[in-house]
Amino acid sequence: MAELRVLTTNFDKPGLKNIDTYEQLGGYKAIRKALKQIKPPDLIEMVKQSGLRGRGGAGFSTGMKWGFVPKDPSLVKFVVCNADESEPGTFKDRLIIEKDPHQLIEGVMLASYAIGAHQSFIYCRGEFYEGNATLRQAVAQAKKKGYLGKNIFGSDYALEIVIHPGAGAYIAGEETALLNSLEGYRATPRLKPPFPAVEGLYRKPTVVNNVETLCTVVHIVNHGAEWFQKIGKPKSTGSKIFQISGHVQKPGCYEFPLGVTLREVIDTAGGMLPGRKFKACYPGGSSCALLTERDLDITMDFEALAARKSALGTASIIVMDDSADMVKVAHRLMQFYQNESCGKCTPCREGTRWTVQILARIEAGKGTFEDLKVIEDVCNGMEGNSFCPLAVGAAPPIVSAIREFKNEFDAYIRKNPHPDRHPEMKIAYPYM
Amino acid sequence: MIIMETKTEQMINLTIDGIAIKVPKGTTVYNACRKLGIEIPIFCYHDRMPPFGACRQCLVEVEKMPKLQTSCTLEATEGMVVNTQNKKSIEGREGILELLLINHPLDCPICDRGGECPLQDQALKYGPGLSRFFEDKRRFFKPLPLGPVLMLDRERCVVCARCTRFSDLVSGDHALELLDRGFKTEVGTPDGGPAESKFIGNTIMICPVGALTSRVYRFRARPWDNEPTESTCTLCPVGCSMIFDERDGEIMRTRSCENKSINDIWLCDKGWFGYEFVDNPNRLQTPLIRRSGKLEPASWEDALNLISSKLIHAKPGGKIGALGGNPLTIEENYLFQKLMREVAGVNNVDHRVGMPILSIDDEGLAPGMQMSIGDCENLSFAVLLGLDLTEEFPVIWLRLKQAINKGAKVIFIGHYAPEIAPQLSETILHSPGSELDFIKQYIPQISNLKGKGAIFVGRQYLANKNRQSILEELSKYSLPLNIMEGRGNTLGARAAGMHPELGSDGQRLPHAGLNSIQMLENAARNGWDFLYVAGANPARKYPSKLWQEARSKIKFLIVQDLFLTETAQQADVVLPTLSFVEKSGHFLNISKQLQTLRPGKELPADIYSDGDIFVRIAKLCGHELVQDFKYINNPMTTSNKKQNANEKSQTEEKTLYATFAPSLFDNGVRMKHNPHVIKLAKEPFARLNQKEAQKWGVQDGGTIKIKSAANAISVSVKIDNQVADKTVVLPLGFDAIPVHELDANLMNGIKIVIER
Predict the structure, then answer these.
(1) Which of A288, B432, B534, B714 has the least C-beta neighbours within 10 A?
(2) So what's the ipTM on this one?
(3) Nearest CA-CA distance, residue B636 and chain A, Å
(4) Tens-place pLDDT, residues A181-205
(5) What is the Cα–Cα distance from B521 to B551, expressed in whole angstroms?
(6) A351, A377, A387 member nearest B54 (Cβ)
(7) Rounded CA gap, A396 and A289, in Å?
(8) How far is B332 from chain A (nearest CA, A)?
């Protein structure tokens, strides 16, 4: 399957950050069209029809999410764009923001118009210094032209957009933690229900959408739901930016229709490094089960990867060749989740640290065979019983690595002269 | 089938462990289980706060749901089938307990919480029994003091966030917050300093492990050694129900006792930690008699004989009086005034020492609330008129905060912003003297709001020369009018007749006696024979000139107290007495609810209660004092006399008006003898705003001389823009700022001049 550039069409055009260039290339056409011809409920219906599924990882139907927002026009509502892109291996939103910020502004405008929000936010990852500056500049340009503010494009619709930088927590990518952070609290997830569509930012109905999702809406409005539906697979419609990183020749972003095979993506990225062999990859960021050589012909869409008990996630493929040490991979990934756990719920706070400690011991040649069973138990507990998706995503990469490459773990454990004996139990006291 | 109390609410049918149950819509699965007697372990959930779902301990299996569910957050729905005792849910809960324990130090043998610890109990009952954790436990430098009364052992914490949610949702002071993230998460204060709260003791109670402990109680007892007694706190007029824990004749700690209509399950920190004075070694042990200028220990017989002979001797002249009664029970107050009225034959009795004194004709309405404290939770709107709620009636704030959480609009109008101002809908400031204008401007708008409302009038409006007109104006609105005035058992003292104008039936007497200021003035002028002071310290409450002149002309002064107060040092006879922890009797709280006192510890040898002393003195005078008091809730005494309100708005450019601010933690006699709680008292300052400071050329932190018509004192100043213009706020009850020198009656609105 060949590349299909929809969102990324104009990325190579010079001066795209400038609002005039964006307009010359057909920008702000969708929002003009929507404000003139499409009533908000019809816009929601159009997005539903298109089959667009959220591009932030969970893959929930965007049109349905918008549909949950109460229709009462007297209620204050918000659209919040989740630009806190921090999943390992994911770098599509950054590219969009830095290359084509007006595409995102237009997407936010469409979503806000659809649900009737007059104040919207883009919560942008704090480390994206350039991205934050670019977005601010884009909003300023749009305001100056009167595209934001009151009576947008001659209609009676009004909208303001605020760019808010994050403070560096992975968990702020979870929508309710993002809302807490945006309100100025610790970024910890909130209890659901109530869902943000009913009670979100400042307890008002709120839609939280990923950058790529909102940008895709622009093209759905421009070309119609039917056009979008025809791209990709029946239940995974449209095109998607695939990010490929790791041991490939040309890592980067490549846009394909959903349903492209893993092999095609890797080949487009120039294939493996010379003389190396594909060993495994995480197909949707790090928070999913890994794929091995057997899976190279799997189609990259929501259903096929779910059936394989992995996930499309953000379609961020982290490729590892035969030089990768899976014990170190598991250890390093778990360290990431340990450091990013917000500490609210027990399984995640305690489980991630315990697993890191065990993996470190195995790596140091002091592991026992029972350790692998404990890791599996703890990971199952994290996946089943934690508060939010962070720990749910922390378990599969480690469990799948142990399952697929048990021999590598066993080899480390065999370095221990007594791999069947319990290590000495440590006593917390006397303390310092 | 078990049916829970059915009202008109919609009922939900569900099945738990095979038993069908009906619960009202909105009930959580956890609470439905509890109704069935099925115990599910919890840590983060607390029934006074909304579900949180963080600890994951209360997992149960619900059919048709793929994952285990936290029962504390899950609302019961029609037809739900819940399994709490099957293998999957038991294993789920064991897994969580194993995780909670891996970083817990398991130091139960040296932990204060051991024996009453939810983590200990639940680990025993529901834990896996064996740990698979062989790694390093998390360690912290320990223990970490968070202020004078609170200690934190971070490695014991299970991050249930009960304490931080208490600070957010119940007390609203944000004294404790979670710091850092992930497994490094710890409890701390926002600025790293001491926890700034008046309610921090409650966080110790709701902590489900031994992470938060009391520095007062730490390492003093194991819970099973303590002998609990239910009684009442008498340290402020709220009169919270509390439990005394005694061990080997000493009070180890005090705890709250659930009372829906007063304190719910909470206490303020004075209640939690203010009991150390009871076992303070400085307490008076024997009577003292002044012999050749010095107070010397004496027998009870000698002391009481001396008192009765002096009393009999003084009786014909009638130059006799009695002061005090706020720390006494209602029965003791009754006996005290009876002793003076029946035996000595005078009406010169007054409990209002160091409180503003207004005659019945001028006070308009008597102190007390027109609603129950518990009802404060159901208000839709409230006005606090010159009431610094947390300083004077702390626990009532916790009840009112619940109403605010439900959306109630609460407005403050007064001379300076209270510390709870950020939680209120609006804070309106004005200088002393313009109260009536502000009432007329704001109350009509507010009283039209929908739902239940109430007016709370506090010291800034009550200790005021326009009090009667203010209360008359407020009576026009058909809202409960709560007159928030009092110290300790003042309502009880007044009800028992410890008042120069009122008898123990609450009715006015034909011949009024002298009030406390009149007594001292009269004594200074005419010379008195006999003054009996019980549970009061007039030497620190009145201008020293007035007190010294009166003292020098009083032939015989008796002081009955726990400690050798400034007044006692000048007495002719000093009698030791029992504290509130050792007494039986009753306490009348601000909402006129009668609370019972029960002795919580072994009584000290050879010390008697105030009541017993009065009875014995009467007996020596040949009189049988009978305790036949019955409390009747009389309607408020109102006078018909019209007052000419001083409505002239004060416009003089360069004048300052004083307003007096009470503090919960001050330098009072009892508080001074609490080694921990006295550290909670803040450094006192006179406060005025930037504008006035500039006008008077006053520097922040500087020392100034404050001059009233009567006297001048030196005070340090703090600039605080939460103070109204033309106003200087002077704290009451601090040794460093002897405000009692400025005015005998401490009325708000007295004119002040600043000299540098």
Answers:
(1) B714
(2) 0.94
(3) 45
(4) 999 999 999 999 999 999 999 999 9
(5) 10
(6) A387
(7) 5
(8) 53
